[in-house]
Specification:
The protein is an alpha/beta fold. The chain has 10 helices and 10 strands. The longest helix is centred in the last third of the chain and has 25 residues. The two termini are 29 Å apart.
């Protein structure tokens, strides 16, 4: 896949072998780092730079990561939730949790199976999460009709699911996301904590779009919470910005020392 992508981009823009910036989870090991680098080099890249996804999300969310003051980003992607405190172009404190969008979809699948005796797929679960999923009760409860396979007779059946039920389905996983944010804040150095208290928490990734998640986090932490502009694309945008301004942003890269 990488080889085809690099070849197509190279031929379309007559680039030859390009420089590539790859987003990786925070806390990547040296072995994993080398594996990613070698894979991309073998796919046809001239140079490979790695950037931790929460750092890329912060840049894509227009946070000034080079400032001496502290900022906190919560990136809720598909497979992981990454929480990072950033200052002076580096990650000061970070935690990664293997609970994110995919796990929330699975929670909804299991809830519908056990509470409604209906089998649905992950695509339907994701639609439920996006349309009526919430972290706290909505002012006006929403209802959505879904179709699945009745586990009793194996026949197709339509049922209505409410936003309250969707909230109940995701409650445990969302509470774990909230706890990892609180844990990161507890580990934050005091000199940066006041900055974060003033600036607030920035949410990125698809999970940021879950209704009332920002309100729940604000209530639990006592801090303002903001959703990044176009949170779904924050990591991609940040990775692109880093590639465009590589010299200025080299310090944010995981493997920048190897390129000096």
């Amino acid at each position: 896949m990488l080889k085809n992508l690099i070849e197509k981009i190279g031929s379309r823009y007559n680039l030859g072998k390009p420089r590539v910036v790859v987003g990786v989870p925070s806390g990547i090991t040296e072995v994993e780092e080398r594996a990613v680098e070698e894979s991309v080099m073998q796919a046809g890249a001239k140079e490979v730079y790695l950037i931790e996804e929460p750092m890329a999300a912060a840049i894509g969310s227009n946070l000034d990561v080079g400032e001496p003051s502290g900022s906190i980003i919560v990136d809720i992607g598909g497979g992981t939730t990454e929480v990072a405190v950033i200052s002076l172009g580096g990650i000061v404190v970070s935690h990664s949790l293997r609970i994110a969008g995919d796990e929330l979809d699975e929670d909804i699948v299991n809830y519908v199976k056990h509470e409604m005796n209906l089998a649905i797929g992950e695509t339907t679960a994701e639609q439920i999460k996006m349309e009526i999923g919430c972290a706290m009760p909505l002012m006006t409860e929403k209802t959505m009709e879904i179709r699945g396979r009745d586990l009793a007779d194996g026949l197709p059946r339509n049922v209505n699911i409410t936003s309250t039920q969707a909230e109940e389905a995701m409650k445990e996983s969302i509470s774990k996301i909230v706890e990892i944010v609180k844990l990161t804040l507890e580990k934050t150095p005091p000199e940066l904590a006041s900055d974060i208290m003033e600036k607030g928490i920035v949410l990125a990734g698809g999970g940021a779009l879950i209704k009332n998640l920002d309100k729940l986090l604000s209530m639990e932490t006592g801090m303002p919470v903001y959703i990044a502009e176009e949170p779904l694309d924050a990591v991609v945008r940040g990775t692109g910005k880093t590639l465009e301004d590589l010299e200025r942003l080299k310090t944010v890269l995981v493997n920048s020392r190897k390129r000096k």
